[in-house]
Specification:
By secondary structure, this protein is an alpha/beta fold. Strand 19 and strand 20 form a beta hairpin. The N terminus is likely disordered.
Length: 561
């Protein structure tokens, strides 16, 4: 759905009325209510509400931090981990920019918030958690990539300060402009509180400048603050500033062992995976270029360095102004990223490098120091956590739960009770290489199925096989687990209306479908899908899997449940 700037303004006006009704309906252990006059009442606590800094990086791998990757120079990120709580098993429920960001902002899964891809999506029905913070007295500022499509960069409800841009934005002010337009003085634009302003410098630095100016001069210092710094970096194609152009020139880059196009790596993999390697999102034809994966990874790391600098500026400000003991900093990524695993790049799929993201929570006055917490936490859990930090309850529509007690060490991984991790990605016509993907992970066993394609399912024992090399989907020993997870996945993919639906956006072009001349050709079907004609077992595939059916298949005889 296309949104005009006036539509956003009308939605903002309506929002101020409906949020009070939503606030009054909050569920769980609430510490706030809406009084008859419509203002938000917060119960008294021993401590005043904490300041919150949320730093969101784009497409950062779960392991792309100095304290995990030898040779990477990320001293400020490393400091957060050394002084805070590191969550190595943080995941996203949809690994794509717009759906993941909508989940972060709403505390809802993609099937419920409805932002299903990177094309323009309606936000009309959504409530973003900063609005609750703002109503509770917080000063709120958003700086960076919003990205619910590219239609508008207009300010959204819930923010006192707004600095953003349309779509993906650009690293430099003159990117994507012709020489003639540059000579005429044109530059890429930012939206600053509803006014168009030319971008002046490198985007990571400039967003940080705006954020620091707001912290230092633009906010009401008598109130707690929520700073949402949403970087474009390190999104493809990552481009570092000149000062980091030659960084990591001698760093040895080890590409994944699952990247080469070999029979061993292809065994058990769906056809779509094998076909994607020669595509826009494939390791053999990345972004339709012939650039080496090693150099792309180096630029990816180089582009992270200004993000680390940005974090250092914020941390220095907190220390200088005596705010360290009453501020929480959360470092997170909207998606993971593959650098050649299974012949793939990008994200979108349900493999580990796609769904896992870096997460560090730092709050010296509240959280323990230097802790690694193994609990599975999701982007669904961020909004309830931020509201909990502000001593507010969880709105009824939010599906996640506050991880604050977990981070504080008041509960352990078992008491946290993460439950199943359910993943959903919906096919995009613009990047048709990856099919609609549903997955569920329980007790470190992952089941993956695909919608609308003629292809294999996948099943992995992540304890024994963390690199997802050995597909157990047809292993008789795993039959019962496959059946159980398949059923659980379907049940949990129901939306809040009890429906099972697959949404989609309007198709306006063929999308990026090209393949490299001389590259790998389309994959063949699995050998065991080729059968003799007229077998008595020819209809067995229509009936639910069971041990009895598997026996009938093996004996090539008819089966009826």
């Amino acid at each position: 759905m296309t949104r005009s700037r006036s539509h956003i303004a009308l939605r903002a006006a309506a929002f101020s009325a409906c949020i009070l009704l939503t606030t009054a309906a909050w569920a769980g252990q609430t510490t706030s209510t809406a009084d008859a006059g419509g203002s938000l009442q917060t119960d008294a606590h021993d401590r005043k509400p904490m300041n919150i800094v949320f730093v969101l990086v784009d497409d950062l791998r779960y392991d792309a931090m100095g304290f995990l990757k030898p040779g990477l120079n990320t001293p400020n990120i490393d400091r957060l981990a050394k002084e805070g709580v590191y969550f190595p098993n943080a995941v996203v429920t949809s690994s794509l920019c717009s759906p993941s960001r909508a989940t972060i902002l709403t505390g809802q899964s993609t099937r419920n918030h409805g932002v299903v891809d990177n094309h323009d999506s309606s936000e009309e029905h959504l409530t973003f958690f900063p609005a609750y913070l703002q109503q509770a007295g917080y000063q709120t500022g958003f700086f960076g990539k919003w990205h619910m499509g590219a239609d508008t960069d207009a300010p959204r409800p819930g923010f006192n300060r707004w600095v953003s841009f349309k779509g993906q934005g650009t690293y430099f002010p003159t990117d994507l402009l012709s020489p003639e337009r540059i000579a005429a003085g044109e530059r890429q634009m930012l939206n600053v509180d509803g006014k168009p302003v030319q971008q002046k410098g490198y985007i990571t630095d400039e967003l940080t400048d705006y954020a620091m100016n707001w912290l230092e001069k633009g906010r009401d210092r008598s109130k707690p603050f929520f700073l949402y710094l949403s970087h474009k970096a390190v999104h493809s194609d990552p481009v570092p500033p000149a000062r980091y152009k030659n960084q990591y020139a001698d760093l040895k880059i080890e590409l994944p062992a699952t990247m080469p196009n070999t029979p061993e790596n292809n065994a058990g993999k769906p056809m779509w995976v094998r076909n994607q390697r020669n595509s826009w999102h494939g390791a053999d034809f990345p972004y339709h270029t012939d650039r080496s994966m090693v150099e792309q990874v180096r630029d990816y790391y180089r582009t992270l360095s200004p993000v680390d600098e940005s974090l250092g500026r914020i941390m220095a400000y907190l220390k200088k102004n005596g705010l360290e003991k009453n501020t929480m900093v959360v470092f997170y990524s909207d998606n993971g990223f593959l650098i050649g695993e299974h012949g793939l790049i990008d994200k979108r799929n349900a493999y580990e490098p796609s769904v896992r993201v870096p997460m560090i929570v730092w709050a010296p006055g509240t959280l323990p120091k230097g802790v690694t917490n193994p609990a599975v936490v999701r982007n669904l859990d961020l909004a309830p956590t931020f509201l909990d930090v502000a001593q507010l309850g969880k709105p009824a529509q939010m599906e996640g739960k506050s991880l604050l007690p977990l981070a504080e060490g008041k509960i352990d991984e078992k008491a946290w009770g993460a439950g199943d991790f359910v993943y959903e990605y919906y096919w995009e016509w613009s990047f048709p290489q990856t099919p609609t993907t549903f997955a569920i992970q329980r007790n470190r066993v992952k089941y993956i199925q695909y919608h609308g394609v003629w292809d294999l399912e996948e099943l992995y024992d992540l304890k024994a096989d963390p690199d997802e090399r050995h597909n157990l989907i047809n292993d008789p020993a795993w039959l019962d687990i496959k059946i159980t997870l398949r059923k659980a996945l379907f049940e949990q993919l129901a939306n809040n209306q009890g429906q099972h639906v697959v949404p989609f956006s309007e198709k306006t072009s063929t999308g990026l479908v090209s393949r490299k001349i001389g590259g790998s050709r389309a994959a063949d079907f699995p050998d065991d899908w080729y059968i003799e004609p007229n077998l008595p077992s020819k209809m067995n595939g229509l009936f639910p899997d069971s041990a009895a059916k598997a026996k009938a298949d093996a004996e090539k005889r008819s089966y009826r449940p």
